[in-house]
């Protein structure tokens, strides 16, 4: 009972250390409750595309769990660091290490009880709000409803108990390895001036530049996915080394600049930061990395969500799209007959004939035909898809009046950057590019701008040229399937009522199945829009949750750092005020120090996002998002909102710091 009462007294009297720690653990408990309740909702399995959306929320739950372990470890270590002197004093007064273990056990037990009660309650309350948000984002009905599942709450209890056991083990190991003198003087550790490690600073810069170079030079969306984590790892390593070693190098260079250093605004911050940069560097680097994660996560998921309409319209210029490798005569008749039977008018009927996308690789003198059997991932940055279409088929599908004078002339459209030159070499056959088409000229065809590799649409004078080229390129029996043409039959229909539209689409699908023709693909714009809204909405929700988690973690790290710095700087500022520095000068010095410390992580995070933009832009092509201007606008808005929130946190923590250091 003695240790239990002493633990309660410690928590009450040491609120400055315990309250942020307990609040962070309550936040983790609520976050895990929310994600697990959503991910395991029975109604989720009933939604269209349930498998993909379930995997998405399951992935989000795993990310939150990993984040919980890392963040709980960080906050636990901060708490232990702040209390080392207290434990050392207890040790000197007669409490042995076993007694300290017991005291720490009861402190963790009381914190655990508060965390579970408040965390589960908060998690359930916010889960209800989250369900309303998800239903709005996904556009689903009552099948996705709020329900409290006891097994999920039990899982959260197990997770939080596991986290507290892990933190208790860390605390026990810390106490076991220390002696009373070390504990009492723990805060004096690290006061020795660190050396400027130019080697680590250079390695950090190289890692950062290497990561940036990967992001800027990647050509294809598939390659972007493959190299994304390599670039992220290099940037994270570079960031930590730059803060840990590069910051000391920069501070010492500033100290050598007499005009800058011998100024009351700069002298104290620079000299103080040099002595404690080893302790500060990891925290500042963590702030920078977390800030980058917030910006990238929210901007990417928001870009997907707000770009979904463009994605649907690019893929579906008509409301119904039917594709096959054989003529669609039976399907066309079945569709028109069914529409007449249902008294529904079909409009904007369109028939498209072309080759299927053919794999080529870029060479110095043009494009060389390849095949997917022999293709390797090493060639992915050189890969392009080439689709051939006769001028007559292009004119019929788009209504274009463009013409070609000779068989050597072509019209060209590419999703890559504008084609350079007037000659296109296709595996030895050279064509004159008489005109490069823009996106409006091919938008009626659909499904052109969402391939994972650049697409070349080549319009030749007649079909005989296409047949001749295919026979030349694919002469073996194994390659005969590449000669199969691609047919499309697309149209709109005159129904506005949503229920009637769904009924017509279901009936049309059954009528086509009964037509006797096989091997076709039936796609409806309404169904695609629904599935895209479900996926992008779910992704956006997870982005908001993860972004909020990373943002709060960033704010808490900043708070912990300010408290720690304030306690360390208190005596220094007391002495300076005794020798004549007034309150206004103290505030100016504090402002200069905090701005120097906390502006740098934000600036670096914004630089990281700027260099990551081309890489993420290419990755979004795999999701059908090609409107990079919209994504740029979303990224800028997210960056502005985050910067405002970051500044608010800075202002609040600056006040905490000032209250700690003022006399």
3D architecture notes:
- The model has no long low-confidence stretch (mean pLDDT 77).
- Among the domains are: 1-189, no CATH class; 318-525, no CATH class.
- It has 20 helices and 11 strands.
- It has a 7-stranded mixed beta sheet with strand order 4-3-5-9-6-8-7. The chain has a 4-stranded antiparallel beta sheet with strand order 2-10-1-11.
- With 663 residues, it is of the alpha+beta class.
- The relative contact order is 0.12.
- Residues 59-180 form the ABC3 transporter permease C-terminal domain.
- It is a multi-pass membrane protein.
- Keywords: Cell membrane, Membrane, Transmembrane, Transmembrane helix, Transport.
Query: Alpha-carbon distance between the termini?
Result: 39 Å
Q: How is the main sheet built?
A: 7 strands, mixed
**Kindly state the mean pLDDT as a whole number?**
77
Counted beta strands: 11
Shape: elongated
Regions with pLDDT < 50 over 5+ consecutive residues? none
Radius of gyration: 32 Å
Helix content: 55-70%
Structural class: alpha+beta
């Amino acid at each position: 009972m003695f240790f239990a009462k002493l633990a309660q007294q410690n928590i009450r009297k040491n609120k400055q250390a315990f309250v942020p720690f307990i609040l962070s653990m309550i936040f983790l408990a609520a976050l895990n409750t929310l994600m697990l309740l959503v991910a395991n909702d029975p109604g989720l399995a009933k939604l269209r595309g349930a498998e993909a959306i379930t995997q998405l929320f399951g992935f989000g739950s795993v990310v939150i769990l990993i984040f919980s372990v890392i963040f709980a470890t960080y906050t636990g270590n901060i708490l232990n660091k702040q209390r080392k002197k207290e434990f050392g004093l207890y040790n000197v007064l007669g409490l042995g290490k076993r007694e300290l273990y017991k005291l720490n056990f009861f402190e963790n037990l009381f914190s655990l009880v508060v965390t579970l009660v408040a965390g589960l309650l908060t998690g359930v309350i916010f889960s209800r709000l989250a369900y309303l948000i998800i239903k709005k984002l996904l556009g689903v009905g009552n099948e996705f409803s709020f329900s409290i599942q006891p097994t999920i709450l039990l899982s959260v209890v197990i997770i939080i108990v596991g986290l507290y056991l892990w933190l208790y083990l860390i605390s026990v190991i810390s106490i076991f390895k220390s002696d009373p003198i070390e504990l009492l003087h723990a805060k004096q550790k690290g006061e020795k001036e660190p050396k400027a490690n130019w080697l680590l600073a250079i390695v950090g810069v190289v890692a950062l530049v290497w990561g940036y170079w990967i992001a800027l030079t990647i050509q294809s969306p598939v390659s972007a996915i493959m190299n994304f984590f390599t670039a992220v790892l290099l940037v994270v390593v570079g960031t930590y080394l730059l803060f840990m070693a590069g910051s000391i190098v920069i501070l010492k260079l500033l100290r050598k600049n007499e005009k800058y250093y011998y100024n009351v605004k700069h002298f104290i911050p620079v000299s103080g930061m040099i002595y404690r940069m080893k302790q500060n560097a990891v925290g500042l680097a963590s702030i920078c990395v977390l800030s980058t994660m917030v910006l990238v996560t929210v901007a990417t998921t928001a870009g997907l969500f707000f770009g979904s309409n463009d994605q649907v319209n690019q893929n579906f210029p008509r409301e119904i799209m039917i594709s096959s490798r054989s003529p669609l005569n039976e399907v066309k008749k079945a569709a028109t007959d069914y529409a007449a039977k249902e008294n529904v008018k079909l409009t904007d009927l369109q028939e498209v004939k072309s080759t299927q996308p053919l794999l080529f690789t870029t060479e110095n003198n043009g494009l060389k035909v390849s095949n997917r059997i022999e293709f390797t991932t090493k060639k992915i940055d050189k890969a392009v898809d080439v689709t051939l279409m006769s001028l007559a088929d292009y004119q019929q599908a788009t209504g274009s009046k463009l013409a070609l004078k000779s068989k050597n002339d072509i019209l060209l459209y590419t999703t890559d950057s504008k084609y350079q030159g007037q000659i296109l070499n296709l595996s030895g056959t050279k064509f004159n590019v008489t005109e490069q088409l823009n996106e409006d000229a091919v938008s009626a065809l659909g499904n052109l701008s969402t391939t994972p590799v650049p697409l070349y649409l080549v319009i030749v004078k007649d079909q005989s040229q296409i047949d001749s080229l295919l026979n030349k390129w694919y002469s073996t029996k194994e390659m005969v399937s590449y000669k199969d043409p691609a047919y499309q039959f697309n149209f709109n229909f005159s129904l506005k009522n949503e229920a009637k539209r769904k009924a017509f689409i279901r009936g049309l699908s059954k009528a086509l199945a009964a037509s006797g023709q096989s091997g076709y693909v039936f796609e409806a714009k309404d169904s695609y829009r629904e599935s895209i809204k479900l996926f992008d909405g779910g992704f956006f929700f997870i982005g908001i949750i993860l972004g909020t988690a990373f943002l709060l973690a960033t704010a808490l790290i900043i708070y912990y750092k300010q408290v720690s710095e304030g306690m360390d700087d208190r005596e220094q500022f007391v002495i300076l005020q005794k020798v004549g520095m007034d309150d206004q000068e103290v505030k100016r010095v504090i402002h200069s120090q905090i701005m120097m410390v906390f502006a740098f992580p934000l600036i670096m995070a914004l630089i990281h996002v700027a260099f990551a933009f081309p890489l993420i832009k290419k990755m979004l092509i795999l999701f059908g998002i090609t409107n990079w201007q919209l994504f740029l606008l979303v990224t800028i808005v997210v960056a502005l909102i985050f910067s405002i929130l970051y500044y608010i946190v800075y202002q609040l923590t600056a006040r905490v710091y000032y209250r700690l250091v003022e006399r």
